[in-house]
Amino acid sequence: xxxxxxRRRSKLKPTRIPERPIKLLVELSGQxxxxxxxxxxxxxxxxxxxxxxxxxxxxxPITHGHxxxxxxxxxxLMSDLSAQLDAIATAIRAASTPATA
Length: 101
Description:
- By secondary structure, the chain is of the alpha+beta class.
- It has one domain: HIT family, subunit A, CATH 3.30.428.10.
- Helices cover 26% and strands 14% of the residues.
- The protein is built from 3 helices and 3 strands.
- The chain has helices spanning 21-27, 33-39, 85-96; strands at residues 46-49, 53-57, 67-71.
- The longest helix has 12 residues, at 85-96.
């Protein structure tokens, strides 16, 4: 004998996904903590800066020397960074290279 399957409907209602989630993210870009740091509205310990990216120490580091590299222009998705990847790689190399005296 086969077990009987319940034909009752779930009482859970599906979560409604916004029609335009990307538009919502773009509207929230003014509240982005990284944009506030780039604009100088939030404090940061900068390790590198150029025209396209900034690098600064994380306020809650996972490991010693944990830093963040952020483009100066707000990006919603990782795919938005494709034009800036060279600048980001340069910033990582420059910020992680010890200064020579």
